[in-house]
Amino acid sequence: MKKFIVFVVITALVFAGCSAPNESTKSDAGDSLKIVCTVFPQYDWVRQILGDRVGDIELTLLQRSLADLHNYQPSVDDMITISACDLFIYVGGESDHWADAALRQAVNPDMIVLNLLETLGDAAKIEELFEGMQDDDDHDEDDHDDEDEFDEHVWLSLRNAEIFCAAIAEILSSLDADYAEQYNANLTDYRAALSFLDAAYKEAVDAAPVDTLLFGDRYPFRYLMDDYGLKAYAAFPGCSAETEASFQTMTFLVEKLDELNLNHVMVTEGSNQSIAKTIISNSNDPNRGILVLDSMQSVTSGGAASGAAYLAIMGSNLNVLKEALQ
């Protein structure tokens, strides 16, 4: 019965997201709230909390191409859109270094800025190198900056999502006070769906015979893995720009795959899977499979308009995780 309720709640919210307008939909009034989001999860959280009000708000997702968070660079039009908005939501990590300049040029003195990493506070995680993982800076130690950088993929924790959605609802209620009750009601429903899915993840992990994943790719899933006590090995950190793994990294991952006797190697969406295939072909079982976890880094405004939804993607990731942990 519980699983049926979870399905109904999540499905209802997903279809609500599918009915949202394209980016930058503006009301006839001409003075609608202007909200700008840098990545898809923020955009979807906003439209879920807005609910029926989404058509009256000028909501923009900056990411229009398949370039992910780490490669995005704002256009002149993007900078203008940001400068005049009422609410700007961004991750706040190293990849968002351009945002400082955009905010300095803001023409709206009342703009509210929501920085996700700052919102997490002490719960934000420093990006770490795990055993066997290749460091981008191994080849360039003279230019290496010892300053810690935060893991930017904060949206891949359902528990973080609840925190961010609460912050978004509070801001929307202050900016659009006449609809505060509606926003808080939508928040309650959406947080319930997030909580149900979180419980489903925990149940799946607790029942699984395996507690470790191996990524022949970048590793942006630390927040997700940490929520449920899972361990991981990977070729590169989550924010790495590397595409070629060293001999040492490949050898380590092949040996670890055999040692743990894992049935699959993981990759992120958009991967050419070459590293994963090489790891498998050099292991003691070349028939192992490759599974894809979606980090949502490349969901564009077009994808959002076509029905992509945070809960649906995280639900699909749960199904992948169940298979990977067998």
Summary keywords:
alpha/beta, two-stranded parallel ribbon, globular, disordered N terminus
How is this structure best described in words?
This protein has 326 residues and is of the alpha/beta class. It has twelve helices and eight strands. The chain has helices at 2-18, 40-50, 76-83, 98-104, 116-120, 158-175, 180-207, 222-227, 247-260, 274-281, 301-305, 310-324; strands at 34-37, 58-61, 87-90, 112-115, 212-219, 231-237, 264-268, 289-293. Strands 2-1-3-4 form a four-stranded parallel sheet. A two-stranded parallel sheet has the order 5-6. It has a two-stranded parallel ribbon with strand order 7-8. Helix 9 (247-260) packs across helix 10. It is globular, with a radius of gyration of 20 Å.
Shape: globular
Radius of gyration from CA coordinates: 20 Å
Strand content: 5-15%
Specify the number of helices.
Answer: 12
> Distance N terminus to C terminus?
25 Å
SSE pattern:
HEHEHEHEHHHEHEHEHEHH
Low-confidence stretches: 1-30, 138-144
Structural class: alpha/beta
**Total number of strands:** 8
Side-by-side strand order of the widest sheet: 2-1-3-4
Largest sheet: 4 strands, parallel
Mean pLDDT: 87
Percent range of helical residues: 40-55%
